[in-house]
Each structure stands twice: as C-alpha cells, then as structure tokens.
C-alpha cells in the first residue's frame, strides 16, 4: 500500500521537475535569442543530479514527427497539457516512458518556443530512492514471514502431538510420544499422561470400592458415631450419633455391669472392637462397637455400632464393620486425591482451547471438540466422586425435597459406563403432568434405581449366555407415572426374566440367582426396607413381552406436586 501510494503521488511530485525544465528553457532562450542557430536543437539538462536530453525548436510544428521524436528521446507517451490526457499518470510505466512537451513564450525576448524532454531519468531516480526507503521494511516483512512459517510448522507438530494424546484419553498405561517442539508444552503433556494414568487407575480402584461398599450395605442396623468417650468410673458411654433420620444427636448409655470391664480393657487401644449390652434393656440385646483413632484414654474420634441378634452374628459381622470404616476413609482420601489432578486436567484443556482460539489451524475444530470432551469427562468424574462421597455420608432427617425425575436421571448417569460397556440402551420416560418433589433420603432412592439397573444388566447378560450375544432389543426402560395411591417408577428390562421361585424369594435376604461372587442377595432386600421406612413398596414380576419389571411405589405422604407454570409444556 505504501508503494502504490507513492506511485499515485508522482503526477504531483513531477510538477516541480516540469517547472525546472521550463525555467531552464527560458534561460537558454534569454541568453541565446540573438543567435538562434545555437539555440535550436539538442541541449543537456540537469536537475537533482540527474541528466536528461532536451530538444528546443521555434514552434511546435517543427518538432519531429511523433515516431521520430519517440526514437530520439526514447519515449512512448507525451505529457502535453495542450492535448487531452490519454494515459494513466498514476502508473510507474507511464512516467518511465513519458516525454515532457510544452510551448512557452519567453518574456523580454518576444519569442515563443517549443521543447520536448524525456522524463525517464527522473522517474528512475525517484523510484530508486523509493525502493531504497522500502528495503528495510521489506526485510522486516520477509523475516516476519519466515518466523511465522517456522512457528506454524512447530505449532502444527505440537497440535498433532496433542491430538494423538487426546485420542488416547482414558486409556490405561498411556506413554509419551515424540518430544514436543516447544519446551513449554512438554511439561503439560507429561503431566497429562501422568494424571491420565493415575485417573484410569483410580477408576479401576473406584469400581472395586463401589463393589465393596455395595456389599457393606447389608448392615441394616448400622449406626455411624463420632466423638466417642467412655467414663470408666460411671460406666457411661457417650457419643454423637450420625443417624440419617434423626441427624446428629449426643447420646449417653450406661454399659451393662458385666461388660464394663471389657470397655475398661480397650480404653488405651487405638482401634478396638467390643461387644456390649445396655442397662435397663433385655440382656439378650447385644451391640457391637467398632472404635477408631484413639484420642486419649477412653476417647475415640469415630466408629460404628451394630445391633446384634445373637453373639454368633457379632463375631461374623465384626470384621465387616471394621472394613466399612476403612473404606469410608479410603473413599474420602480417594475423593481428595482425585480432585486436584482433575482440576489440572480441566485447566490444561481450557488453556488448550484458548490457544486454539488464538490460532487459525485446520485441525483446530477437531482438537477443540476433543478438548471439550475432556472437560465433559472431567465433570463426569467429579460427579462420580461426589456420588461416592454422598454414598459414604448419612443424610440427616428425611432429606431435602428433590425433583423425582431428575433424581432418577442422576442415578442412571451413575450407571452409564456399564450400560455403554455392555451395549445396552436405556430410556427414561415420564407421564407426570407436572414436576413432582419427593421428601425422603435422595441417596436411598438413587441406590434403589442403581441396584435395579445393575440387576437388569445382569439379567441381560444371563440371557445373552443362552441366546444371541448381542441384540438391538437389549434395553432398559424406566417410566415414572401416576400409580394407585402414589407414583410408580417402573424398570423394565429385556433380560432372562424371573425364575420359577424367584418372584416369591427375590426380597429375602441373601437370596440370589447370580453366579458365586457376582451378588450378595441383599440388593432387593435393602430396597424393600428403604421403601418400607417411607411407607412405600417394591414389587417385581415377569414382563408381558419378556424380561422383568421392577416397580417402586412412592406414597402420597412424601410427595408434593408443583403447579403447572404458564407456558410450561406438560
């Protein structure tokens, strides 16, 4: 643009050159008008250290013919104000090939003369100066282009490496590929690989913990406690109960006289398990206390109590409750350890998106889509961690009111990895005219839905063992609809269905039709106990088109229906 602007200003800048030529001709005529023979013909003209040839004749008619004049002065165009301009005076080619032609009257001599001069030397000199002025700028531009190409090539390599890393996100044992062209990118890549491997290991451990926690749910009378202290002199045990219905309560019980010595013997132990009875209660009512983290003589930071029906049960359940406390601590520690690397991964993905937005690259949309997938998966991992933490906590009271369909959807999201892994489709439907709120422990309802989906997946897997390995009809349908005296949540699967005696014994504790090691037989039993506590029910039957249908009925006493809002689609 600078070059073109200078060219367009040439017509104005040559005005001074044309005036210099006219003054030079006037001086020659004034000096030599007494001797015209020396005046007419070719003369040398010099301006701004540039020499040019000048032809002077008495009148315009005596100028050579056009073609002869062009050959004499080396011209192709004529800059003659006496005739209409027929050439583009804003181009370089015009001034290099133009001749200056004028007819002037010289004052004091009474003579009128015509002259012609080539402008080529002046145009070449002017453009030479212009090119010299632009040389520095051209060098800077060339260097900038070279640096841009160099950076683009290295950035392309960096993006290819990132794309390769992202395509293997979530795979265990991820290893670094070729080194990053930019050293600043090497550390995020190494950190991404490290955290990816840690994350996949954590997911595997999470699955193991989830299975262990599901088995430990069989402790129906389990009560978690904190701030435990035992008064040896008075034989009184004080603790804070963490019951989900009553909330945190400080309780004091008097230990049976026959069991006080057992408590006295464990007061200095960091971890202890002891059986006890309570005064003023039947002597057959035994309790098992699991105490953890001794804070001083006769004081512990936490533990749990389990009501036993017989001493034999206490011996069998002792180690299981200790494992519950261990796994609670493991779940808490796992949640803490996973949050930081997940934050780092999310931050790296966000920074990657910012870098892509700052550079226009053909692979940018694909990389951006994968980075957004990382953010989605990180959010999903955080939700899983929160859910595990929620399963490790005890809800206080009846719980806060929650939207029923949203809670069912949240429970299905928890099982989505298994649904995807086993290629089973899941569909959630609602026939409710308006949103419905339920007041009960939300985690308890989600636990029932999760257990129902797990049983459906196992039933579909059993059907596949006796039939086609895969089928497009493999699905689980969940419907939330109005029922008789409440709201029904129905879970219908395409599995193998119920056995001959399964419909009657399905809710008995420890009853299972699964292979050894694949179930505890407590899932449906615990689900029924949860619903009985809120006045509801759980039933199971064979489906009309195969499979099984599990129906959870929530009573009207825990439901509240919202009024339909204007413009809200039912």
From TrEMBL:
Entry's Pfam families?
Answer: HATPase_c, HisKA
Which positions, given as ranges, span the membrane?
A: 130-151
Coiled coil segments of this chain: none
The lineage is:
Bacteria, Pseudomonadati, Pseudomonadota, Alphaproteobacteria, Sphingomonadales
According to the UniProt entry, what is the EC number of this protein? 2.7.13.3
* Protein's recorded name: histidine kinase
Which reaction equations make up its catalytic activity?
Answer: ATP + protein L-histidine = ADP + protein N-phospho-L-histidine
GO MF annotation terms: ATP binding; phosphorelay sensor kinase activity
SMART domains under this entry?
HATPase_c, HisKA
Ranges for the Histidine kinase domain?
A: 333-558
| Class of enzymatic activity (EC top level) | transferase
Keywords recorded for this protein, A-Z:
ATP-binding, Kinase, Membrane, Nucleotide-binding, Phosphoprotein, Transferase, Transmembrane, Transmembrane helix, Two-component regulatory system
């Amino acid at each position: 643009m600078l070059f073109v602007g200078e060219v367009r200003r040439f017509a104005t800048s040559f005005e001074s050159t044309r005036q210099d030529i006219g003054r030079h001709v006037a001086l020659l005529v004034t000096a030599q008008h007494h001797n015209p023979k020396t005046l007419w013909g070719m003369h040398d003209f010099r301006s701004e250290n540039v020499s040019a040839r000048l032809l002077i004749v008495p009148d315009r008619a005596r100028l050579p013919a056009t073609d002869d004049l062009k050959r004499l002065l080396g011209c192709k165009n004529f800059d003659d104000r006496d005739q209409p301009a027929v050439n583009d005076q804003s181009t370089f080619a015009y001034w290099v090939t133009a001749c200056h032609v004028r007819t002037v009257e010289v004052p004091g001599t009474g003579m009128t003369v015509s002259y012609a001069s080539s402008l080529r030397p002046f145009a070449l000199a002017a453009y030479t100066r212009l090119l010299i002025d632009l040389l520095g700028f051209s060098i800077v531009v060339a260097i900038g282009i070279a640096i841009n190409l160099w950076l683009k090539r290295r950035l392309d390599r960096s993006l290819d490496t990132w794309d390769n890393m992202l395509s293997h996100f979530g795979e265990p044992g991820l290893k670094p590929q070729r080194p990053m062209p930019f050293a600043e990118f090497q550390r995020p890549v190494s950190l991404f690989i490290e955290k990816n491997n840690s994350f996949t290991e954590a997911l595997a451990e999470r699955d193991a913990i989830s299975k262990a926690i599901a088995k430990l749910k069989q402790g129906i009378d389990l009560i978690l406690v904190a701030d435990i202290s035992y008064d040896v002199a008075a034989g009184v045990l004080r603790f804070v109960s963490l019951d989900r219905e009553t909330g945190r309560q400080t309780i004091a019980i008097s230990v049976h006289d026959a069991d006080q010595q057992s408590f006295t013997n464990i007061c200095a132990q960091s971890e202890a398990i002891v059986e006890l009875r309570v005064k003023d209660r039947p002597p057959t009512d035994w309790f098992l206390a699991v105490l953890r983290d001794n804070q001083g003589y006769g004081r512990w930071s936490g533990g749990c109590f389990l009501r036993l029906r017989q001493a034999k049960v206490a011996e069998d359940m002792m180690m299981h409750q200790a494992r519950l406390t261990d796994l609670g601590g493991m779940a808490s520690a796992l949640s803490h350890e996973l949050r930081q690397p997940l934050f780092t991964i999310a931050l790296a993905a966000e920074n990657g998106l910012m870098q892509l937005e700052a550079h226009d690259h053909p692979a940018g949309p694909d990389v951006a889509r994968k980075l957004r997938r990382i953010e989605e998966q990180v959010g999903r991992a955080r939700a899983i961690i929160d859910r595990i933490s929620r399963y490790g906590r005890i809800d206080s009271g009846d719980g806060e009111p929650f939207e029923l369909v949203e809670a069912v959807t949240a429970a299905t999201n928890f099982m989505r990895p298994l649904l995807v892994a086993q290629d089973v489709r899941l569909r959630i439907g609602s026939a409710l005219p308006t949103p419905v709120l339920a007041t009960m422990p939300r985690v308890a309802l989600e636990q029932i839905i999760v257990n129902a989906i797990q049983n459906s997946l196992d039933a579909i897997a059993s059907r596949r063992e006796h039939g086609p390995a895969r089928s497009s009809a493999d699905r689980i349908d969940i419907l939330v609809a109005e029922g008789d005296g409440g709201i029904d949540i129905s879970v219908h699967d395409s599995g193998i269905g119920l056995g001959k005696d399964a419909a009657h014994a399905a809710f008995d504790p420890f009853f299972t039709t699964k292979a050894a090691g694949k179930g505890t037989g407590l899932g449906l039993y615990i689900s029924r106990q949860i619903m009985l506590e809120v006045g509801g029910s759980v039933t199971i039957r064979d489906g009309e088109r195969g499979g099984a249908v599990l129906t959870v009925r929530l009573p009207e006493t825990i439901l509240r229906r919202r009024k339909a809002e204007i413009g809200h689609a039912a």
